[in-house]
């Protein structure tokens, strides 16, 4: 079942139509990603001219990697994604920085076996990608991330999660849909009801293979993986920037 779900998740994002409108759609679904990328760049305790080695898990269209290279222009990045079409889109965004980026096509489940020589890294980042993993898969990945980081290396994840209280979860989801409704009207000049948006999102989450955990669960998994410090750096409703230090 999980292997089938893995293939379906990869297929969902390795799709010409999805890739073509992904950044535009993200502005509608997750406008906080601009703020979240800023938090990542702000919280990393390095000089702007440091020669950092960074791994971006789920590079997508290259949004977060681009923001990081703007902040740390000497950084060298290994950019991983399971969707080849996403990597091609990322190469277009990052066309002025290709000499400092290595692209790797891999699922997160395959990565520990395919890339055993990445260490030592200064930073590992991810954005809106790891919620596709089951809990046990995420723990395996967190352990792998810990193993390839330098001592005092940083892992930062920008992602969605579930609220522990069902009343809050329902409220957060409603506010998310309300925001989408307003942005669809402003950006796409379309009128959609909350119920219509809700149905579309439920179908999208199922198709994409979403498995968000409670934020506390993610933090606990980091501790189990060996991170000496874990912290939530930013949070708004069902979105957070969190991570750990080795």
Short structural description:
With 246 residues, the chain is α/β, with parallel strands linked by helices.
Give an overview of the whole structure:
This is Putative methyltransferase. GO terms for molecular function: methyltransferase activity. Pfam families: Methyltransf_25. Residues 54-153 form the Methyltransferase domain. Keywords: Methyltransferase, Transferase. This protein has 246 residues and is an alpha/beta fold. It has one domain (2-161, 211-245): 3-Layer(aba) Sandwich (Rossmann fold). The protein has helices at residues 2-13, 16-29, 33-43, 63-71, 84-93, 111-114, 135-148, 166-188, 194-208, 215-225; strands at residues 53-57, 76-81, 101-105, 121-127, 149-160, 229-236, 239-245. Strands 3-2-1-4-5-7-6 form a seven-stranded mixed sheet, sandwiched between helices. Helix 3 (33-43) packs parallel to helix 4 and helix 7 packs across helix 10 (215-225). The protein is globular and about 50 Å long.
């Amino acid at each position: 079942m999980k292997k089938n779900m893995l293939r379906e998740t990869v297929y969902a994002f390795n799709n010409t139509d999805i890739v073509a409108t992904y950044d535009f759609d993200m502005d509608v679904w997750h406008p906080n990603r601009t703020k979240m990328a800023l938090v990542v760049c702000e919280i990393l305790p390095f000089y702007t001219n440091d020669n950092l080695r960074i791994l971006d898990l789920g590079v997508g269209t290259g949004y977060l990697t681009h923001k990081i290279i703007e902040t740390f222009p000497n950084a060298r990045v290994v950019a991983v994604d399971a969707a080849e079409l996403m990597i091609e889109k990322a190469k277009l965004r990052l066309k002025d920085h290709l000499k400092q980026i290595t692209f790797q096509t891999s699922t997160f489940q395959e990565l520990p076996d395919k890339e055993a020589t990445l260490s030592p890294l200064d930073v590992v980042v991810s954005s809106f990608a790891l919620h596709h993993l089951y809990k046990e898969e995420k723990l395996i990945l967190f352990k792998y991330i810990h193993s390839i980081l330098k001592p005092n290396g940083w892992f930062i994840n920008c992602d969605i999660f579930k609220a522990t209280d069902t009343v809050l979860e329902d409220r957060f989801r409603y506010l998310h849909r309300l925001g989408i409704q307003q942005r669809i009207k402003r950006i796409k000049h379309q009128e959609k009801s909350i119920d219509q948006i809700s149905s579309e999102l439920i179908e999208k989450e199922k198709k994409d293979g979403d498995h968000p955990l409670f934020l506390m669960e993610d933090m606990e998994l980091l501790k189990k993986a060996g991170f000496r410090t874990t912290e939530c750096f930013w949070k708004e409703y069902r979105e957070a920037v969190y991570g750990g230090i080795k």
